[in-house]
Amino acid sequence: MAHIQGFLVITLLAWAAVSVSATTPELSTMTGETVNIPCLFENATIRNLFWYYNNGTERHNILSLAKGQLTLGAEYADRASLQDDNSTLILKDITVTDEGTYRCDVDRQGQTPVLNINTKLNVFSLRPDTLPVITPNCTGADESSPCSVLTNQSFILTCALPNVYPVEDTELIWYRDGERVSSTDDVTQNDDGTTDISRHIQVSETGNFTCNTTYLTANGRENTAVSVEVWIIPPEDVPNTSGKNLIIGLVIAGITIIVLLVIGIFLFICRQNSRENGDAPTSRNRNDDPQQQGQELLDRSPGISPNTQHGKII
Description:
Elements: H1 2-18, E1 26-30, E2 35-38, E3 46-54, E4 59-66, E5 69-72, E6 80-82, E7 88-91, E8 100-108, E9 114-124, E10 133-135, E11 148-150, E12 155-164, E13 171-176, E14 179-181, E15 184-189, E16 195-203, E17 207-217, E18 220-233, H2 241-287, H3 290-300
Parallel strand pairs: 1-9, 11-18
Antiparallel strand pairs: 2-7, 3-4, 3-8, 4-5, 6-7, 8-9, 10-12, 12-16, 13-14, 13-17, 15-16, 17-18
């Protein structure tokens, strides 16, 4: 009987050492921040302390404190530390891969070891009031806006929410003047564990288009929205560029004709002056020769034969 009682006592003590609480406390943090994870146990002199991380598939050693000697796991060497009283694990530069369950085991001097003190860490990438991004960036509500198109034309509006974690319960919904419109989805997985989510719609009508987003943060569920105005330009407002181009063409043609006429007149005048200058020397040379002048007078005198000699009739 004494042996049975002793076995029951040992069993109860062992059970007490591995069972601390029926519920696991949870902490929430943002990527890039520092989190403090407590190891809940009564004040006592710690002989040995061990911290582990479990991502659901495997366990990682974070650190150990044995006989006053602190040893850090290789992947936590630059990120993990203990508070001065060794009761809290400090983990900095949080990423989405740090989400999971953290466990501490404590060996206290003169007391029963405390094992399996678990804390669940939830990591979120989006901060409260994170707005979706709409492209193209419609900066104006007029004909110069990127969201203005001609009648019978269309373009694509995209609403994007980048670097989302967790993806669960994340929604992006398009509305036109308060009415929901259908969209196509695009999801891209990033190397850091986050996800880029976008929704595309084809726009061919004037209206107010709103992208409404719902996502989770460390503070709970958030809802944000961004709106843009789309303007469809009717045909009568489209500038008549064809008529303007015709006028420009006629002006250029007229100027070309005038230039050609001026060049033609100039060349004609130059040619006439050249001819007059070429005939003048011949006349002067003829008048300066007395013998030639006398022959011309003789030829013009009536009744005088060219063979008649002066003072004698043959």
